């Protein structure tokens, strides 16, 4: 039975997949699995019974992501024990606290300019604390494609967020042994930060201690785009080097016995994950090394897959929420795939082919999961790995470990620092050049879950026939696999429905229009946001909302960006869109800010089109009637571009930020027919949506794009009351999240992203 431990991993994963489904499905899967094993493999009844028993235990052991216990979130105090490392960032201090009833709470402390801020040194892992502050709502996902922070915390068993009030005294006492390890880590990093250049230290901290906060965000993004993030995460490569160097030092320099060396290595492998931020990949690599050392000393021999299975089961049973971690899933999937495909990989003794096959297998095994969460992959990363993996293996990791060994030799350390900086900087710049010249990311959108099983069946069949050297069958299945990905990519172009999505962008406007069969993609305004201190523009809206939404839809090209006026809450993300997407046309009014247009012309080769009142323009066959501005009203808001169009037989009116003055001119100039859907002007400000205006256009549905708890008090209650008095249904992004209108040539339905 000990040689079949990987079956327990399979059973656990089956239970994980069906954990939120119907329990009868689980029983059916178990029954079919039992019959399959009994008749095909002649496994003993005892083994089958043990699998089924483990399945029931695993099913009930897998934690639910729902909040299971109530907590008094109205209380201004919080008591419990700190159970995580204290994470210090420039913008906040963060840790996890466990209450007496075993609830986990994410605790934040933000910097304060006054003298009342508590001493942060009192926050220690293992300390018992009484904190004063307030519970805050954990931000949830409000748009398609957006990162779900609430789900992310729930996947770690955390359902509450508490912010410490700096003006009150917090009380913490004691600490655990882990704090000594974290103190040693912090002290060493501080020591190296003073002695290394900023560039070298950023890589030193990231690759040896799992602290990526010092890496340039552009570099992190570059590695993510090229599917090279695994090189920034501590994994088997790093642990293997550490083990090799430790063995060399202990056996050849210090001349101790092999048994003592193995004991010291095991101790190091227990401490190192704690020093390296406790990432799932480093725990997997370290525990696997410990298991292999233990098995080597044992008379019972295990296959490498079963050794890895022991590590898997230990990690999910010790910390049940591990199964929800993407890093955990990626790490085990890639490791299992490489081990099970070792005959395919080693089929050629040519080094280049071996690296190519490892890269290909690694990419294929995680591709559905990657597309499910990140919506794109870089096919050429397989080729880039031919250079990058050997470079990191032969040069970067040994160099950084050499720097670690020289940490207390300032003169030699300075020379090593300079050599590493010059060498590694050139390599990173070359990756940037490759990215600029040959980057062809394949943006597929979100991977359909119903395609996951067919994908893995085709992939396993392809690798099976490749191992059997039946190359024609393997080639045919590989073509079927590519065809499956192509089908996923072209699905939007076969969809008879179009979509109008008003994104919940905060205090601003951003509307994305997809015409049926994806004939054209149009963006109407794209709000930006400001930095936390409101001192400078920020790309947060683009990075966290607009870009993920477009990628989740598989959109890579924008046919037109229509901008109503030049206020930052309507155009702040346009520059980022022009930099990252192929935009065909930018449409503005005659009174749009010329300075901003000149800036955009330097970024993009798009056609710049000016439309004015009375014009009618077509995007494909979609007609837009321009109604305003009629004349220059010497005000950015009043000069907003106002357009009327029809989606699915419903008439829409897009109004920018016009006020009562613009509304009066609009009503006077055009004899309005009834409007079905009104994009309420100026986020529901009291200066807009006058009674006379509403009497004239008579909308049935009003959409208000407005930020949650915004400082302007939008929408104004008088506006809401006027709309209600006119019998208008109101949908607001601050309450409903993104608002989605799905339409065909003759019908349409409106839905909200938040329930």
UniProtKB/TrEMBL annotation:
SMART domains: Lactamase_B (SM00849). It is found in: Cell membrane. The chain crosses the membrane at residues 7-37, 43-62, 196-215, 235-256, 263-296, 351-375, 382-409, 475-494. Residues 507-708 form the Metallo-beta-lactamase domain. Keywords: Cell membrane, Membrane, Transmembrane, Transmembrane helix. It is a multi-pass membrane protein. The keyword Transport does not apply. It holds the Pfam family Lactamase_B. NCBIfam families: ComEC_N-term, ComEC_Rec2. This is DNA internalization-related competence protein ComEC/Rec2.
